[in-house]
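Review form for a predicted model. The reviewer records the input and the model, then writes brief findings.
Reviewer: anonymous (R2)
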Amino acid sequence: MLNVYFEIRKERHLDYLLSEYSRTSPAYCRLSVFDVGESPIGPFRDAYLGLGCRMSMMPAVLVAASITDNPRAMAAGIAERGFPNTLGKIEFAADRTQARALISDSQGPLLEVTLPTLQTMEPGRLAFDHADGVITREDGTLQLVATSAEMEIRQAALCKNGSIEYPIERDSVWQILNCRQTVSAQLIRGVRTFSAGKQPE
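Model under review:
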């Protein structure tokens, strides 16, 4: 998993934050990109862009946009990917020294994240906050779904010069909540568990 925290404009943060949450200061987002090699539905990649916030004074992330490259993963309705879910393409490459991911939808690239230099760190120094999402019920109404943090971190590396770039200008939430300054970035290896919202077809 690539995990990047970055500052955004306060006004943009408030545009997408629900009333159940309180805004952090400074306003920030978390971009998480997953490369899942094994799962009950096979390998897949997914990513979400979440608003850093607090709920009942506890750290949280509210998913503002999400994408996966596997139709079965999208059909499963995994709550932490939030609403809306989008099918797209995610390029992911990582080794001991560097990491990179390129996220695209059907219209082309959305953003590219690069971690050019990695420094090994103790896994216990990292915390994986839960990610909350908004899903659509069968009757068309929206429901807020809180998910628990179920990520067992086994290896971790820190990057102090990570960056997020936008190859093509797009009218998309992935770019509306654009990076003003990278705060921290990590490459993480571990075991991720979650519950699907429904049985994938």
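Findings: The radius of gyration is 16 Å.
Further findings: The helical segments are 10-16, 71-75, 173-176.
Recommendation: see findings above.
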